[in-house]
Amino acid sequence: MLGSALPPSLHSARSSIEAEANLLKRQATSERASQDNQLTGSLGALYAPFQIESDHFPEFELDAAMERDEDEGGPGFRPVYKSRDALEEEVDVEAELSGKQLGPASPRLAKRRRRPKRGNFSGGGLISLIGGTRGKYFWHRALPNKSKHAACPVPNQATRLAACIQPVAIANDDGKSPTVVPSLTLVQSIWEKCCVSYSILATKTVSHTAFKTLDEDPTTNVPTAEASALFAAAGSSNCIQVFVPKTFQQGAKVSKNIAGGGHTFDSGKANPKVVVVEGARPAVVAHEVGHAAGHLGHDNNNTVMKPTMHYNVANSAKVSLGVCAAARTGSVLTKTNGKGDCCMAPK
User: What is the pLDDT of residues 85-122, one digit of tens each?
Assistant: First the structure.
């Protein structure tokens, strides 16, 4: 109502003032956008000393878009780049911006305490920048590529060893109905704790029905005549051979639990032979592989090398430094690089 009562000259003056205000507002918005683009466009130069997961910085986000630096008298802008790792070390560099904008090649920085936030930055580094057209600005930086992991204890330091495992199934005379080889994944994961890497070869099959019920004598480490014939049929190998009969027979007794379901021959030698019955638990196989790799006895502690005496009762998946030391002595094992580059993780 008041506006309608104003003289035409005042209407014109108010319109001019509103137009000029809108123009100034647009210019200020454009100037701020230009400042923001200049800073974000300089990321490649600023982050050059650091490890970045991808050249388009997928892990970076602006914190609350842009935080205005009103306490510095503005206008300013504060893009905050977040890091996965906690800030490990702050480096404050002091300088005066002297009315110049923050440049990509040689940013002018001034000391002012403000702790950066945590977030998503690869390589252990974190950068938080405050920039603008006047006032003081700061740069906090974490040293890049600093390891997050504690040093390996001396007793746990080891050279990585490796060997292959050759599974051998037993089929009928016509090659049909081979026995099922147990999963060997757990074997790999258990002995990896001792810095021993096992590769698994494709299953080989021996076709001889009689071998499916294999003569076994748990009182000796000498294979029976039938076991020796099975080994000969499979041929020699540079790997640990894992034979899988359907069951064991000792005299008149036929049972999967004879010898606890598994027996190892030529332990610690270049071509050890493991025999485990079909259906044996993977940890039982891991126990026998430990014998093959040089652990000649049993452990009284709760580790994989403590026997269960049952093919279908799993051994513990734990190892100890003592177990690791013994199970790294077999001739079948080879060094991968000759350096103590592995840290054993007994657990």
Answer: 433 333 333 333 333 333 443 343 333 334 444 443 33
Q: How far is CA 281 from CA 129, 288, 294, in A?
A: 57, 11, 21
> What are the tens digits of pLDDT across the range 149-197?
468 999 999 999 999 999 999 999 999 999 999 999 999 999 999 999 9
pLDDT in tens, 310-336: 999 999 999 999 999 999 999 999 998
Name which of 194, 147, 146, 198 is nearest 343 in CA terms: 194
Three-class SS string for 78-140?
ECECCCCCCCCCCCCCCCCCCCCCCCCCCCCCCCCCCCCCCCCCCCCCCEEECEECCCCCCEE
Cα–Cα distance, 290 to 268 (Å, whole number): 9
- The answer to whether the CB of 82 falls within 8 A of the CB of 126 is yes
CB 268 within 8 A of CB 294: yes
Instruction: Point out which residues pair with 249 in neighbouring strands.
Output: 215, 254
Beta strand residue intervals within the chain, DSSP E? 76-77, 127-129, 131-132, 139-141, 157-158, 161-171, 196-200, 204-207, 213-215, 240-244, 247-250, 253-255, 262-265, 273-276, 334-335, 342-343
- Domains located in the chain, CATH noted: 31-148 (no CATH), 154-343 (3.40.390.10)
Please write the tens of the pLDDT for every residue from 239-290. Answer: 999 999 999 999 999 999 999 999 999 999 999 999 999 999 999 999 999 9
Nearest Cα to 93, choosing from 128, 60, 117, 125? 128
Q: Which residue has tokens 């004879």?
A: 258
Q: Give SS3 for 252.
A: coil
Distance CA 333, CA 329 (A): 7
Encoded amino acid at 142, one letter: A
Distance CA 91, CA 116 (A): 12
Cα separation, 69 vs 98, whole angstroms: 16
> Measured in whole angstroms, how far is the alpha carbon of residue 15 from the centre of its chain?
66
Contact predicate 191/325, CB 8 Å:
no
